[in-house]
Each structure stands twice: as structure tokens, then as C-alpha cells.
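Researcher: Quick test of sequence recovery. C-alpha cells follow.
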């Protein structure tokens, strides 16, 4: 019986060639803007962004550079199949968090095991298709979560956190990252066995999962374990932090017209930015915020019966991002594309005087699990697990 997760011989930077990992790792491809890309590439000729993004559309050139790094032993392979314990310590809104999990290979073709939770976009998938065809490598891990605590995960983390790490580094946001290679066969076997029958939810990396699965289906038998994808596997824990994703879009209605259209369904209050932040941190019935014409408005649903009438027994009734798109936005006149951000400060700035910011609460982890496990998908940009996993710490090359 094939394992749900399994160890692999990782490829990583050669410590004899690279003194400081902080200079060479980078964020995932989909969050690097052009200014940040320039800064990353100036850090080092071997910053991972040099092979992660094809800025000129020349994927063959990236493949040749990648192979040269291998030939020059900038990147080297581990000899023994391993899992890689990965810890991130970070701060958010004045609080300190810690998140840990294991980098390993995740089986993609076991029915009922891996549950995506968001819809994907076609443009990023075309780019990643060209990358995987050229590189024959999983360059970045997807992020999956076991929706329950796993004792052996916690025990292994406690044991290895007392040992000398394989390497430590800071990411671009200043977060502390630590990694330990685990090649102890007994420990690896226990970790893999603990999730053999578990259902796993994709927290981040939906595009990479779909592209890897597509590549596997088209190239079966060409490489060993091609039905597996590089993944970071975490169990349910306090450090699984989800940030809200606010929406900024042009609307034709001014503030007075907006509130007039919404007051049938919502109790509307003018609030300060500080009050808005506090309100969006509270649980309860559907609520959201608006920033329009220099003023914040907090909207609280008048009664649960409103949603019952609109949505019946829909699984999405507890998901604010879905309700915003299907209940609120149809009531107003929007123009153009939506811009997304995770902070109220930036939402306010992006809205300026001409657009409207719709401010939402973060999705609850249990709601993400519930929706995904029932086979449903969330709207795009419903969740943002913070921080992002770095790219370049350990990668997985396809092997014959």
C-alpha cells in the first residue's frame, strides 16, 4: 500500500558554497512583485528567485541556469530519504506565533485524501506548467493541514527542537525559520503512519497542486513517485494563523447611497479605524466593514433569518468572503477588477477617495476544514495563511 506521505532525497543549497541562507531563499512566486524581485536578485547571484520566475518568458534559460547550479554544486542532493522539520516564528498585530510542520512528499492520486478549498486561476497555472516541464522539479512546497492535532508531530518537534538545526535563516519579513533533517527511519515511519488515513486540506498552493497532478497524469512512468508532490504538512495548532483578505473596488454609489442600499439588511454604525479593527476581530453573525469617502462603516446583519431565506442550508453561511460576494456586492454597482490586501491600513490607502474598501473578518480554521471536507470550494482569496512558506530551502527533483 502506497503511503499518503513519504520521505525523499531533498535538494538544497550547499553549506560549503552558501554561508547565509537568508541571502538565497525567497517568497513563493505568486507574491513577488517586480520591485521585490529586483531586490532579491541583487542579494545574491544564487538567490532562488533567479530560477523561480521567468521574467522574460525564457523558461529554457532558467532550466539551463538551474542545471548549472547543480553541476557547480551550488545545489546538492541528500543521499538518504528524509523528512524536513520546518519551524517558523513570527509576529502579527503585536502577538508572537510559532508554526511547525514537515516537508515531505504527498500522494496526489489517493481518492478522498487531499481536499482543495479554493478555486484557481488559469494564468498562474500556465506559467507553472511551463516551469515544471522545463525544470522537472517541485520548486516550492504546497501547504496542507491535518485538521486535528497529531501527537507524533508534536513529540518529534519537541525532541528535535533541542537538537542543532540543519540551518536557520530569516525570511524577507524578518521571521525566524529553522529546519532539521530527519533521516531516522523509525521516526519517519511513525510520522508517515500517523496520517495514513487522514483527510488533508490544502491551505496554500492550489495552482501548484493542480499543475503537478496534471504533469503526473501526462507523464506516468517517466519518473519515480510522480504521483507525489512536495508538501509542507502541518497538524492543527495555534500557529496556523489566517489573515483576512479585504477587497477594494470602484463602486458608483457614494457613502450615503451605499448605506441606504444596505440598511434593509444591516445595522450600520460609523466607527473609527480602531473600532473597525476591534469589531472585525469579534465572532458572531455575518458582519463586515466599508471604507468610503473617508469614513469607516461597520455593518452587522440584522437577523439570521435573512441568510436562511437567501441561502437555505448552504455550507457557506459562515464564510464572510462568500457572503460578501453573493449577498452584498450584488446590491451595489461595481466597476472594474478587485484589488486585494490583508491590512486595513493598506485597504484605506488603496481605496483613496474614488474606490470602496470592503473589509472582512478572517475565515475560521474550522470553517475551512468543514467546507473542504464536504468537497466544496471557497471563492478565490478567501484565506491567507500567514506567513508564506519560503521557496528554496528544500526542493524536490524528479528522479528516474
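Model:
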Amino acid at each position: 500500500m502506497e503511503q499518503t506521505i513519504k520521505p525523499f532525497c531533498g535538494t538544497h543549497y550547499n553549506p560549503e558554497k552558501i554561508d547565509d541562507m537568508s541571502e538565497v531563499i525567497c517568497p513563493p512566486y505568486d507574491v513577488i512583485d517586480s520591485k521585490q524581485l529586483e531586490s532579491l536578485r541583487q542579494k545574491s547571484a544564487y538567490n532562488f528567485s533567479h530560477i523561480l520566475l521567468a521574467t522574460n518568458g525564457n523558461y529554457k534559460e532558467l532550466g539551463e541556469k538551474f542545471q548549472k547550479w547543480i553541476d557547480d554544486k551550488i545545489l546538492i542532493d541528500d543521499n538518504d530519504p528524509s523528512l524536513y522539520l520546518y519551524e517558523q516564528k513570527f509576529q502579527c498585530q503585536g502577538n508572537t506565533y510559532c508554526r511547525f510542520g514537515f516537508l515531505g512528499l504527498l500522494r496526489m492520486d489517493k481518492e478522498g485524501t487531499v481536499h482543495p478549498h479554493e478555486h484557481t486561476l488559469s494564468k498562474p497555472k500556465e506559467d507553472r506548467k511551463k516551469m515544471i516541464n522545463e525544470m522537472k522539479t517541485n520548486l516550492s512546497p504546497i501547504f496542507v493541514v491535518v485538521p486535528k492535532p497529531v501527537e507524533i508531530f508534536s513529540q518529534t518537534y519537541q525532541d528535535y527542537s533541542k537538537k542543532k538545526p540543519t540551518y536557520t535563516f530569516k525570511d524577507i519579513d524578518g521571521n525566524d525559520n529553522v529546519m532539521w533533517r530527519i533521516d531516522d527511519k523509525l521516526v519517519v515511519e511513525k510520522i508517515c503512519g500517523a496520517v495514513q488515513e487522514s483527510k488533508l486540506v490544502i491551505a496554500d498552493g492550489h495552482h501548484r497542486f493542480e499543475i503537478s497532478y496534471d504533469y503526473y497524469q501526462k507523464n506516468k512512468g517517466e519518473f519515480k513517485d510522480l504521483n507525489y508532490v512536495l508538501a509542507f504538512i502541518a497538524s492543527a495548532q495555534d500557529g496556523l494563523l489566517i489573515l483576512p483578505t479585504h477587497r477594494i473596488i470602484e463602486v458608483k454609489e457614494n457613502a450615503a447611497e451605499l448605506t441606504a442600499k444596505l440598511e434593509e439588511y444591516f445595522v450600520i454604525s460609523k466607527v473609527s479605524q480602531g473600532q473597525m479593527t476591534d469589531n472585525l476581530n469579534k465572532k458572531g453573525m455575518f458582519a463586515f466593514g466599508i471604507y468610503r469617502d473617508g469614513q469607516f462603516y461597520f455593518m452587522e446583519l440584522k437577523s439570521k433569518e435573512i441568510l436562511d431565506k437567501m441561502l437555505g442550508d448552504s455550507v457557506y453561511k459562515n464564510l464572510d468572503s462568500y457572503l460578501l460576494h453573493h449577498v452584498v456586492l450584488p446590491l451595489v454597482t461595481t466597476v472594474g477588477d478587485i484589488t486585494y490586501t490583508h491590512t486595513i491600513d493598506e485597504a484605506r490607502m488603496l481605496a483613496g477617495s474614488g474606490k470602496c474598501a470592503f473589509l472582512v473578518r478572517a475565515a475560521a480554521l474550522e470553517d475551512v476544514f468543514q467546507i473542504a471536507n464536504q468537497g466544496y470550494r471557497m471563492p478565490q482569496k478567501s484565506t491567507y495563511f500567514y506567513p508564506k512558506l519560503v521557496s528554496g530551502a528544500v526542493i524536490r527533483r524528479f528522479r528516474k
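The first strand starts at residue 5 and ends at 6.
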